[in-house]
Amino acid sequence: MAEVFHFSEDPTIAVFEPRPVRVPAQRPPGQDWLNGPLVWAIDAWHAPMYYFPRDCPRILLWKTARTTPDDLDRWWRGDRGRRMQAHVEAAWLERLKTTAIYRYVFAADAFEPLQDVGMWVARRAVRPLAVEPVGDLPAALARVYVELHVLADLLPLKGVWESTLHASGVRLRNAAGWGEPGWPHSRPRTVLRTPRLTLRPFELADAARVVAIQSNWNVTRMLRMAPWPPTLELTGDWLATHIDEWRAGTAHRFAIVHQGALVGCVDVDEIEAGEGSLGYWLGEAAWGRGLASEAARAVIDFAFGPLGLLRLTSGHAADNPASGRVLEKLGFRPAGETEVWSRPRQTLIRQVRYALGRPAAA
């Protein structure tokens, strides 16, 4: 017997009575009845969309026959062998871990299929065949090959609906900064593409990879503000600041992704009065391949283009001449030297300064 399912935080429902949706959705012509009194259910394949607290905003992605490699490179984070990805905000993670969800089982012949991401509806009252706890929700997702990603917010995924992946958003009215259904005033954080790289916003889940890269003293000794030794706690705190910086317009930081792996960071920060500071770092295995120049060029174009900045500055430790060659290749010109505090070295160091003006034709 074919079965469909309904998920609820209430384990005591004996009969499901048709009810209108709480918040009516905009429906295509002739489908307004879907906002009316119905009992909703979901098929087994799509059921993980509801392994979440009822009001938790989430975005789920899965591949289709028309999904392109470029869209996978841009949007699919982590294991490409997983059948589905789920994305939630960090603010909801604790509730995801602690909320009890129950799965109600129904005979499918009491429902009619909508041919829409596994949804079924009944127009009459229905009794469940069984009710059972889902249990630990992150573990339940993992068991059905759904990879969970925790983001500071869901805004980086706004453009995924224009891709060849299937995207389903649930309770997005509760997502931070998402805005009204038309989305006109909720700008997604930018994703940049180059021939070899994807530059995307960092995620909280990137903390372990950042720690792994910055645990190499050859990398971190050249950075001005990185802690030494790096820890997951300190790195997580740093990643958590990115969304507020982006919203305030004071910094835009990008994870550099090459062949599916995070290899470094490029950013423009200290933005004020039409100026900003360009910075970048790469894991040692990525040195000497032109990746820093490629990533920095994309962010320079972003700074002088969409951000409308007029001038960029940058700098490097005096004992890191390779970084100076990168900056000169990008068009920066020397602008003197200064002394700055090096957090990892715990001492003052000489820093060579550079500046680059917005091209006159821009």
Describe it:
The chain has 362 residues and is α+β, with helices and mostly antiparallel strands. The chain has 2 domains: 172 residues, no CATH class; 166 residues, Aminopeptidase, CATH 3.40.630.30. The protein is built from 9 helices and 18 strands. An 8-stranded mixed beta sheet has the order 11-12-13-14-15-16-18-17, with helices on both faces. It has a 4-stranded mixed beta sheet with strand order 9-4-3-10, covered by helices on one side. The protein has a 3-stranded antiparallel beta sheet with strand order 1-5-8, with no helix packed on it. Strand 14 and strand 15 form a beta hairpin. Helix 4 crosses helix 6. It starts with a strand and ends in a 5-residue tail after the last strand. About 2% of the residues have low confidence.
- What are the secondary-structure elements, in order, as H or E? EEEHEHEEEEHEEEEHHHHEEEHEHEE
Strand content range: 25-35%
Number of helices: 9
pLDDT under 50 segments (min length 5)? 181-187
Helix content: 10-25%
Strand tally, please?
18
Inertia-based shape: elongated
Largest sheet: 8 strands, mixed
Separation of the first and last Cα atoms: 65 Å
- Rg, rounded, reads 24 Å
Spatial arrangement of strands, main beta sheet: 11-12-13-14-15-16-18-17
The computed structural class is: alpha+beta
Number of domains: 2
